[in-house]
Specification:
Layout (H helix, E strand, L loop, with lengths): L2 E13 L5 E13 L3 E5 L6 H8 L7 E6 L2 E2 L6 H7 E4 L12 H11 L4 H14 L15 H13 L5 E5 L7 H16 L4 E6 L10 E6 L2 E6 L1 H5 L2 H7 L5 H11 L10 H9 L3
Parallel strand pairs: 3-8, 3-9, 6-7, 7-8
Antiparallel strand pairs: 1-2, 1-4, 4-5, 9-10
Helix pairs in contact: 3-4, 3-5, 4-5, 5-6
Length: about 280
């Protein structure tokens, strides 16, 4: 299986006007395999969003190496191919919308690749269908809701046919319904389109369906593991300044109170189990 992201001894420093270095990443090793859904967790300042920008070569390593889809990001000749392979969806969709009509916005990336017009229209159709926004093809993006704008931003990325998509706090500006819709779309892209997903978030409940979690603090990786392994490690979460999803917390509290429940990450499953207790 191909390794989509291979970060080795990765360091990145921001340089102030005075020439002082502040390291946001301090020798990180993270690998993501093709088809994986990996979530990167951490509080503000943990380095998770800095890592995201290194995946897409928006920033380049200060030390160490970042290889994406087999391409070294420090090789300028790889830049276009890396950004074709690795799409990014940011927190604010307005920063990614470039046209006054939805169709034109989605066409922007494929047009820059110099694709034939017929291929561009095929990609627009595919992208709109995948994000369930076919009815908004001729709408003005600025007139859409926040969740709809984010779907169009995702469609613009999908039109580039990426192997990997990094979602950098992409639900942070949405209401709970919008967040849930985008999360379901992300899972759909991973399950049905077989796109590798890297989800950067501080919303713990968004990560319960991920294949693997990477917990970061102050530019270091504290631990990697499956959601069940991470969310029931209270010592780790306390060290990272994170709180387990509600269902995980509640199942641990019930178990501590002597109520025999399995450790659960899903609230509905936990509720069903509690209802069956005698």
């Amino acid at each position: 299986m191909q390794t989509m992201i291979d970060a080795s001894k990765l360091k990145f420093a921001y340089v102030s006007e005075d020439g002082d270095y502040t390291f946001a990443l301090n020798g990180v090793d993270i690998q993501v395999a093709q088809g994986e859904f990996v979530a990167i967790l951490g509080r503000n300042g943990s380095g998770k969003s800095t890592f995201a920008k290194l995946v897409n070569a928006l920033n380049l390593p200060t030390e160490g190496k970042m290889v994406v889809a087999g391409m070294d990001t420090t090789d300028e000749a790889n830049l276009l191919d890396i950004r074709k392979a690795a799409g990014m969806v940011f927190q604010n969709p307005d920063n990614q919308l470039v046209a006054t009509i939805v169709e034109e916005d989605i066409a922007f990336g494929p047009e820059n690749l110099g694709l034939p017009r017929e291929e561009i229209y095929d990609r627009i159709d595919y992208a709109l269908s995948t994000v369930h926004m076919e009815a908004y093809r001729d709408h003005a993006p600025h007139m859409l809701s926040g969740g709809q704008k984010q779907r169009i931003a995702i469609a613009g990325v999908l039109a580039m046919k990426p192997k990997l998509i990094v979602f950098d706090e992409s639900t942070a500006m949405l209401d709970p319904k919008g967040r849930q819709d985008i999360l379901e779309l992300i899972r759909q892209l991973n399950r049905e389109e077989k796109i590798t997903i890297v989800l950067i978030t501080h919303y713990m409940d968004e990560t319960v369906h991920a294949d693997r979690l990477v917990v970061m603090k102050n530019g270091f990786v504290l631990r990697e593991g499956k959601p069940q392994e991470i969310f029931f490690d209270r010592e780790l979460l306390a060290q990272a300044g994170l709180i387990a999803p509600f269902a995980a917390q509640l199942s641990m509290d019930l178990a501590a109170a002597g109520i025999a429940v399995k450790p659960e990450l899903d609230a509905e499953t936990l509720a069903e189990e509690v209802c069956q207790l005698k």
